[in-house]
Amino acid sequence: MQFILICVLAVAFPIVHLLNSHLFAFAEISTHIGLVYLPAFLRLFNVLVLKPRDGTLATLLGGLLLMRYFNDSTLIGLLNIVCSTGGPLIALYLFHVFRKREVELTSPKDLATLTLMYAPANALLHHVMWSQLDPAQLEAPQQVLWMILGDITGTLVGGYLLIFLVRGLRAYRQRGE
Description:
By secondary structure, this protein is mostly helical. 76% of the residues lie in helices and 3% in strands. The protein is built from 6 helices and 2 strands. Strands 1-2 form a two-stranded antiparallel ribbon. Strand 1 (28-30) and strand 2 form a beta hairpin. Helix 2 crosses helix 6 (143-176) and helix 5 (108-133) runs antiparallel to helix 6. The radius of gyration is 16 Å and the shape is globular. It starts with a helix and ends with a helix.
C-alpha cells in the first residue's frame, strides 16, 4: 500500500505543479517562483503522511517527472529537486527540535508553524544553489522573499483545504454512526 501511495503522490506532484501554473499564472514571478505555489503544500504533505523517507521519495520521483517541463540543465534540474526535498526535511527537524513532538495534521497552529519553518528553508536552499551554479535564475534580489511568500500561501491554502476536508469527513462519519 505504501508503494502505491508513493507512486500516486509522485504523479500528483507534476500534475499539481502544472495545474498551479494555469490557475495562478497571473501570480508567477518566474518559472520557479510564484506568489501561490500549491506544490509547496504537497512536499510537506508527502513527508507528513508518508513519513520522511517515503515522502521525500515521492517528491523526488515527482520532481523527476516534472523535469521535462523546464529548460534547466540536468544538473540544475536534479539540484532543484534536492532543494525541494530538503526544505520539508529541515522544517520537520526544526519543528521536532523546538516543539519536541510530532506535527498534528489537523492543527492549524502546527501547520502554520511548520509552514513558517519550511518556506524560508526551501527558498534559501534554492537561492544558495542558484547563486553558486545558475546565477541566471537570480533575476532580482527580492525574489527570495517572493518565493517564501509563494510557498507560505501555497502551503497554507493546501493545508487549510486538507484540514477542512478531514474535519468534514469526520463530521460526516459521526453523523452516520
